[in-house]
């Protein structure tokens, strides 16, 4: 039972945000490092108290937990990791403030799950200051032209096209229905939703013999009622959802309450807010939804999944409201696990750069130079890596189906290449 879902996370988010404004987060030791050792400070810019906080609070837990684990059990020789965090409140006006705050605290690298933040920092700040920015949610402006932003996931439009390709070729029954599937989208006027909208529109227009574009709606941030949009998309066979969890949940509820039967589709951002969607809508309304992910899900057997579960159990003890923080974080969705897998690549890059240039010479420039030729393979995942011209590490997605029968997500494809 998760009868207090949301309230607990928001409370924790407020605590984290207050701490973030005062001291470094994470578990590296404070003070002067031991002789011959120094700390790499990683600034995290995320939303702890705004609309996206339900997902992004567990994500910062993952980054802190992994840094703590590396420092304690798998150390980078003569290097310690220290994480500091700033609450942007999902307000783009706070992006530069957060960056400057992080730099004042000694941050040499920046990590963010917010596309607006990475886009804002790319040229004027990251490039000028030679501070690599690791983005956990890719959009085309972050990677074109290639620069100082490194995205772990493929661009949103590439993922959306891969999902629609699979839907049109493998999921839709042309013979049984005797027609093309009707496609629509709904979202916010934010870069991530706008790129998904554009990617789906382009894919439908290029394949008019396979797909019928009905239309799309991009609404102001904060919109939570969708009566007109639901009516306009009532005859769709597939509707792509907004990237913000509350928006997706309220649209699903309103659409299903009206009796409309389209299959909902989306990227892994929907799964990041699984708990919110389940609590708002129930599994019957979510049954059959399809989401494309570039990282592994909780029930899959792989070393990174096992390590994430282990660190959750180790670092997040019992509390008074739930059986454990572990149960609540897993119920929330994939934010912790997805952030963990992406941060693992990020910290592997730090390790590789230190090995390449040495402790004294490690800086943003050395990270950049190593990153542009870095490749890594983790069991259960396809190869991840960057090149001089490619700034997104993962080039594949897998499709998951939301199942009311098992009350969870079921993977239904192998890894599929993204479509650019």
How would you describe the overall organization of this protein?
This protein has 420 residues and is an alpha/beta fold. The chain folds into two domains: 7-154 and 299-389, 3-Layer(aba) Sandwich (Rossmann fold); 157-293 and 398-417, Rossmann fold. It has 17 helices and 15 strands. It has helices at 7-20, 53-73, 95-104, 115-129, 140-143, 156-171, 174-177, 191-206, 227-232, 245-257, 268-272, 274-281, 283-286, 303-315, 325-332, 335-357, 364-371, and strands at 38-46, 79-87, 109-112, 133-135, 149-151, 182-188, 212-219, 238-240, 263-267, 290-293, 375-376, 384-385, 396-403, 408-411, 416-417. The strands form three sheets. Strands 6, 7, 8, 9, 10, 13, 14 and 15 form an eight-stranded mixed β-sheet that branches. β8 (238-240), α10 (245-257) and β9 form a beta-alpha-beta unit.
